[in-house]
Specification:
alpha+beta, Arc Repressor Mutant, subunit A, four-stranded mixed sheet, 35% helix, helicase, Schlafen_AlbA_2_dom, HTH_MarR-typ, nucleotide-binding
């Protein structure tokens, strides 16, 4: 961090009025703060952060400096070395306002090495996490979750000794075994049902008995909650945006249910209940208006299946239910246990991720049908990407993911990108009918997004890269999108002409496209050659040619000279 960067950070802290989730400020005039290790642990267990020593937060972030910067640097390095795993902080001294300020950047520790803790205290007492501007001790469950990320988990394989094979639904098992024998090769055709179910981890040996595994019970149990009462889903539909706040008629909630049974039945029933509490809204797609659910059904199903499949099934967490909360402005699905392994929130949906703490459960569900005949999950690591595509295709904002170590939450905003105001804006551009994917991308870019071909496909649901390129090129040719770079580095953003449109003449016989407005503004009242217009607007020869012909038909411009003459000039008409 150089002098200018520190000045900017200090200004931001003074405006904010406190340190925050990625910055801890210490006066440190009396020497090394004894609690500094807590901030180092907290930053390492999160997304990293800066330590600033020699600034007094209580006096409005006044720079007071440190007495011996070199000694302070060495002490910070020693504290970092005393952590487990050791923290490789970047430590430096910046001279500011004639005083020395010591700055240390603590990087985040890889997820499979957390919790980063003070070695002499151990992980249970010596681990911290950053919350707002403070450092909080990790709970025992949070420490257990982080430690479990270091090794392969087998909680779903745990035998349930109080259950028997008779506690499994024979119809569900029959459908499962028929599919297995039809798709998994000849090995399962040569063994009996019990042997097949043992091989597939639906059953397990418990001494000399054969009993269901936890995974087998959750998928095929007649009523799994007999043995694990809390392994179900709670669903609450609230009348307002805040839980506990009453609606217009004093109601605390519109719907409140506990959904029990095996996973396939829970998923189907939860989707049905949510649909009964959803509205349908009208969306323009091309030249048509279609009615759609507030939340696409496949998005709800995917998010719900993820929460049931990837949740923590350790003894610590079996008292925690999957929670589904529907508010007027959002849908929340929360499960026990944060992300597993090396996966982080930023990578979700950007690549195929197969890291899971419940591999046997996932493997079973990929061959377990729902009511409509589709399998519960694909087990290909593409579920989040499919969810993003479905939301993009429906013209909705992407979901928000939150990993709080002990819980993982998916929040799906109930907000259509293609709302009435956005549709009016698009209509004002005078464009030919757009397909839904182009409309969604245009709305995203209007809100500040810069898309690549891959980003366009993820955001809109278009799967063919060539189709995405063609649709983006049409937006570029129409003048509403600007293209930067080429080949693999090409990006697309909203055109400046669209964000700051040129005022149209008062007498407007027809709406103008952004390119037509640019051409008309370039012309003003001075006759210009077509080449001059190209230079002034930066538009291509073909774009200017098409724009001039369109403006001529609409009565905005006229041509001076012969139709095909290179010396022909263009000028605004007096009536425009």
């Amino acid at each position: 961090m150089d002098h200018q960067e520190f000045a900017e950070l200090l200004t931001a802290l003074r405006v904010h009025g406190a340190d925050h989730s990625t910055c801890e400020v210490k006066r440190a005039r009396g020497g090394m703060p004894v609690t500094l290790w807590e901030s180092i642990s907290a930053f390492a267990n999160g997304s990293g952060g800066h330590l600033i020593l020699g600034v007094d937060e209580k006096s409005g972030f006044t720079v007071v400096g440190v007495d011996d910067a070199a000694a302070m640097e060495a002490q910070i390095g020693a504290v970092c070395a005393d952590m487990e795993p050791p923290v490789r902080a970047e430590i430096q001294t910046v001279r500011f306002e004639e005083k020395n300020v010591v700055i240390g950047f603590v990087p985040s520790v890889p997820r499979d090495q957390r919790p980063c803790h003070k070695r002499v205290l151990g992980p249970w007492a010596g681990s911290r996490i950053r919350v707002a501007d403070g450092d909080r001790k990790l709970t025992d469950y949070e420490v257990a979750i982080l430690l479990s990320n270091r090794t392969e988990q087998h909680h779903d394989l745990t035998p349930v000794p109080t259950a028997t094979v008779d506690d499994l639904d024979p119809q569900l098992l029959g459908a499962f075994l028929r599919r297995i024998r039809a798709t998994k090769g000849p090995v399962f055709g040569r063994v009996d049902d019990e042997r097949a179910l043992l091989m597939l981890n639906v059953l397990a040996k418990d001494g000399d008995r054969v009993v269901p595994t936890l995974a087998g019970l959750l998928v095929f149990g007649i009523y799994p909650q007999t043995f694990e009462p809390q392994l179900d889903v709670t669903l609450v539909v609230y009348p307002t945006g805040e839980p506990g706040a009453s609606g217009r008629f004093g109601e605390r909630f519109i719907d409140n249910r506990s959904l029990d049974g095996p996973i396939p039945e829970i998923v189907a029933e939860c989707v049905d209940v949510l649909k009964r509490n959803m509205r349908r809204r009208s969306i323009i797609s091309g030249i048509y208006r279609v009615d759609e659910w507030e939340y696409p059904e496949e998005v709800i199903r995917e998010a719900l299946v993820n929460s049931l499949v990837h949740r923590d099934y350790s003894a610590f967490a079996r008292g925690m239910q999957v929670q589904v909360e529907m508010y007027p402005d959002r849908l929340l699905i929360r499960n026990a246990g944060g992300l597993f392994g090396t996966v982080d929130v930023g990578s979700l949906g950007t690549r195929a991720v197969t890291s899971s703490r419940n591999r046997a459960l996932l493997k079973i569900l990929e061959d377990t049908p729902l009511r409509d005949g589709r399998m519960v999950c694909e087990n290909r690591g593409t579920g989040i990407a499919q969810m993003l595509m479905a939301l993009g295709a429906a013209g909705m904002e992407p979901p928000r993911f939150t990993d709080d170590i002990s819980t993982f939450t998916v929040e799906i905003p109930n907000h259509a990108l293609l709302d009435e105001e956005t549709l009016r804006w698009m209509t004002s551009l005078g464009l030919p009918p757009l397909v839904r994917s182009q409309m969604t991308a245009l709305a995203l870019m209007r809100n500040g997004a810069v898309l690549t071909n891959s980003g366009y496909r993820t955001s809109t649901g278009v799967q063919d890269s060539r189709a995405a390129t063609r649709e983006l090129k049409e937006l570029v040719d129409a003048g509403v999108v600007e293209q930067d770079g080429n080949r693999g580095s090409t990006t697309y953003r909203i055109s400046r002409a669209v964000l700051a449109p040129i005022d149209e003449p008062v007498a407007t016989p027809a709406r103008l496209t952004p390119n037509e407005r640019q051409i008309l503004a370039a012309l003003s009242t001075v006759p210009l050659l077509r080449a001059d217009i190209e230079d002034r607007t930066g538009l291509s020869r073909d774009t200017v040619k098409r724009g001039l012909q369109s403006l001529r038909q609409k009565g905005f411009v006229s041509m001076i000279g012969q139709q095909r003459s290179r010396g022909a000039r263009w000028v605004q008409t007096l009536g425009s």
